[in-house]
Amino acid sequence: MAEFARRFLRYPDLFPSRIGGEAWGAGRLRLDFAGGPQVIEGLADWQIEVIEAAWGPLAGPAGESEPARFRLLRAAQRDFRQIDLCAWPNSFDFDHQPERVRFAGRHALAVLELPGGRLERGALWSAAGDGAEFAGVFENFFRVALAYRLLDLGGVLLHSAAVVDGGRAYVFVGRSGAGKSTLSRLSLDGGREVLSDDLNAVALESSGQDGDRFIVERLPFAGDLRRPVSARRRVPLGGLLSLEQAPPGAAHDVEEVSRARGVASLLAAAPFVNADPLRAERLERVLLEICGGGPGDGSVALARLRFHRRDDRFWDELRRFFASRHRSGPVAGADPSA
Questions:
Q1: Which of 88, 151, 162, 211 is the Cys-Cys partner for 195 at CB 3.0 to 4.6 Å?
Q2: Rounded CA gap, 148 and 120, in Å?
Q3: Burial call 280-309: b when 16+ CB within 10 Å, e when fewer
Q4: What residues are paired with 242 via a beta bridge?
Q5: Where in the sequence is the domain holding 220, given as residue range(s)?
Q6: Overall domain count for the chain
Q7: How distant, in Å, are the alpha carbons of 56, 172, 197 from that of 188?
Q8: 228 and 106 share a domain?
């Protein structure tokens, strides 16, 4: 087995053994999105400006009494190997341990401490010295941290497209090239809200009227449809769909799938945690709950959508399919295309 972090570090055995080191600055920020709010400390003024510009209303000052979950620390540029961005634009090495996860990437090292499976704290050592590179390093760190934080809370981060229709969010998963961004564009052109065409959070939320239920939350991450980050947005989960392209000349087609097939589709779409053998059992339990085997009324429908890329008329099929499966009908007061 290749030595952990050898691809990125000149001296992998010097990977920090504990959270500590020189901070970039004394700044603190509060990040308010799924699994949060989170407080990160150790920021330089210029890094705060970069984060606030990228994360918009989700980033703001942290109160002095708010405990910090994450720390930003300095790493030396000379400790990293030169990486061809074309070959490894967004790649990590992981070291999964019972109570922590270490990972390394281009100009960045990180640790997440997970005693008892709960994400207590973490650290990012960064050598990124300019705004654009730091923005990428910071976002990549939080993609991984959020995957573990959501799993801790009974939810999951999904590589997916999420579109709002009739007051509910529909989450589409599929292999690369299946059409998630195309479906998102067609839906957007048809007047629907796209939460993200890249990563979406499915989280468990307690409701006084309906008991526990799952919601989909917009994240500050996007794929091809990158737009300015807006305020925190949560929408009830309407359905989960595995996405495939229809053969040439074929009509749009929707069919229900088994719980086992649904879990398999979600497992393949759960980045970072689906490659962690020590959290596999926890991930499977969470996905079974999302697919109808846990808290709540178990009414989330699972389907496979075959669609073509010409228009958004697949939504007619989806509405008919889901109308008979939502016990309560459309969310009260919701515009069908909202």
A1: 162
A2: 11
A3: eeebeebbbbbbbebebeeebbbbbbbbbe
A4: 173, 304
A5: 156-323
A6: 2
A7: 22, 14, 11
A8: no
Same domain, 184 and 312: yes
Cα 141 from Cα 194, distance rounded (Å): 24
Q: Which two tokens stand for residue 151?
A: 């799993």
Tell me what percent of the chain is helix, strand and coil, each rounded to the nearest 5: 30, 30, 40
Q: Are the C-beta atoms of residues 99 and 114 closer than 8 Å to each other? A: yes
Residues 102 and 189 in one domain: no
Q: Does residue 337 fall inside a structural domain?
A: no
Can you tell me whether residue 59 is helix, strand or coil? strand
pLDDT score of 235 more than 50: yes
Q: Is residue 257 part of a domain?
A: yes
Q: Is the pLDDT of residue 295 over 50?
A: no
- Alpha carbon distance 157, 222 (integer Å): 13
Q: Do residues 168 and 202 touch, judged by C-beta distance below 8 A?
A: no
Please report how the helices 259-268 and 280-288 are oriented relative to each other, as an axis angle in degrees rounded to 10.
Answer: 130
Instruction: Flag whether pLDDT at 330 surpasses 70.
Output: no
Residue 93 lies in a domain: yes
Query: Rounded to an integer, what distance in angstroms lies between the CA atom of residue 144 and that of residue 272?
Result: 6
In whole angstroms, give the CA distance from residue 292 to residue 140: 31
Is the pLDDT score of 84 beyond 80? no
The reply to whether 245 and 143 lie within a common domain is: no
Contact 86/52 with Cβ under 8 angstroms? Answer: no
Q: In this structure, is residue 63 part of a structural domain?
A: yes
Quote the pLDDT of residue 244.
84
Cα separation, 252 vs 245, whole angstroms: 9
The answer for residues whose C-beta is within 8 angstroms of residue 28's C-beta and 6 or more apart is 39, 40, 41, 43, 61, 62, 66, 68
213 and 103 in a single domain? The answer is: no
Of 152, 187, 215, the residue that ends a domain is: 152
Neighbours of 134 (CB within 10 A): 23
- Are 104 and 126 part of one and the same domain? yes
Q: Are residues 138 and 167 in the same domain?
A: no
Q: What is the pLDDT of residue 271?
A: 96
The answer on pLDDT for 167 being more than 60 is: yes
